[in-house]
Specification:
This protein has helices at 3-9, 12-24, 28-38, 53-69, 74-89, 96-112, 118-135. It is mainly α. It has one domain (23-42, 51-135).
Length: 141
């Protein structure tokens, strides 16, 4: 199979995240640096996460949700709704839960540079819209 046929069979979200890992290694520090740069008030939420374990776990779960939303969305629906309620309990300000997925997209897009494609852009837009719908407070009971 040629590289272009292989790339065409891979979901653009998975391809972008794979390329992010290939080019940047572990993007955890970059993602949280951008989150804290754009939303400095969020850094205090992670004061107790001295070893980065919570950040790593949160990012891993976010990656799983993004890839699932790009496919069937069965896992992500449950996880996003449950985590939205959990984040409310941690006093995460309204709207901040949804921002995290956009931060991941921004870091991925910036890291990929010219390798970022229009297919990736469209897929991320669709996935972010799905995530926003699932995390809307009116849907969480």
């Amino acid at each position: 199979m040629t590289q272009s046929k292989a790339a065409a069979s891979v979901n653009p979200i998975e391809l972008a995240l794979a390329q992010l890992a290939e080019t940047q290694g572990d993007p955890t520090d970059q993602i949280y640096a951008l989150l804290f740069q754009k939303y400095p008030e969020m850094e205090a939420v992670f004061d107790m996460d001295r070893d980065g374990g919570v950040r790593g776990s949160m990012l891993s779960q976010a990656f799983e949700c993004l890839m699932d939303l790009a496919g069937t969305g069965q896992l992500a629906e449950t996880v996003i709704r449950a985590e939205r309620m959990n984040h409310d309990a941690y006093d995460v300000p309204a709207g901040m839960f949804e921002v995290f997925f956009s931060i991941i997209r921004d870091v991925t897009r910036d890291a990929l540079g010219p390798s970022w494609t229009e297919d990736m852009n469209m897929a991320w837009t669709q996935v972010l819209e799905k995530a926003d719908q699932l995390s809307a407070p009116s849907l969480v009971t």
